[in-house]
Amino acid sequence: LGNQNVSFELRNNVIATINNLAYFATDECYFSTTRVSITEAIIKLLFSVEVKSEVLRALGNLTQNEDVRETLIQNNFGENVSELLDSSNQELLFSVCGLLVNMVVDKRFILKQQNVIPKLIDLLRNLSENDWCLAALICQIFCNYTDELTNIEFFFNQEESDDIVTILNEFIDPVLALDYEKSEIDEDTINWLKQSWYEDFFPVACKLLQRFNNVPFNDKIN
Which of 5, 141, 166, 208 has its CA 20 to 30 A from that of 15? Predict the structure, then answer.
């Protein structure tokens, strides 16, 4: 993969194959015994424009495993998350968020690095109405991040907490969230967006909002 003489097409196909193997691999198969070394190889290509999306998709499947998540941390992946979230490519953002869903299961601190939480909040606020699947992923990141929540202050500051609650209260209201009357989006896309809102976004958004409502923001950390 690191050979500069390897063509883009071949490198892309290899990473796509890794992605498929990671998705279907069991703990008993040979692939699982090599996933750490594979991760170390492909993470070096993370900022190669040609294969960045494929690398992120592969890492999204690989990070279902704790040893891979630890490998990413050891390779300073956390320092790169903020830069990846600056992308204007929604497909790439979807892959980054899918990866973060897995990472925050036991690497919660990764969201505290380099303004990752504010960037996720901005994505939730600005992109949701055109991509409820991405919005659902961001909500799932925050759900995993706050699992076994006892004190919101350990996870968010007051402004972040208020922003998330305000956004969710607006977006779980179908009258506000699904108002596409003045939109130039075609009817088929609108129907797909509405279905995605009901099936993907609404359940996880309600779960996250309920979590915030059930755990008050305290003035002091206990």
Answer: 141
Q: What is the pLDDT of residue 221?
A: 30
d(CA 26, CA 58): 15
User: How many other β-carbons are positioned within 10 Å of the β-carbon of residue 47?
Assistant: 12
Which own/partner contact pairs does 96-101 have at CB distance under 8 Å and 24+ positions apart?
Answer: 96/56, 97/123, 97/134, 97/137, 97/138, 97/141, 98/56, 98/57, 98/60, 98/137, 99/56, 99/59, 99/60, 99/63, 100/141, 101/137, 101/140, 101/141, 101/144
* Number of helices and strands in the chain (H, E): 12, 0
**Per-residue model confidence as pLDDT tens digits over 54-71:** 999 999 999 999 999 999
Q: Report whether 193 contacts 132 (CB < 8 A).
A: yes
pLDDT in tens, 103-152: 999 998 999 887 899 999 999 999 988 999 999 999 999 999 998 767 77
| Residue 138 phi, psi (nearest 5) | -65, -40
E-strand spans in the chain?
none
> Which amino acid, one-letter code, is at 17?
T
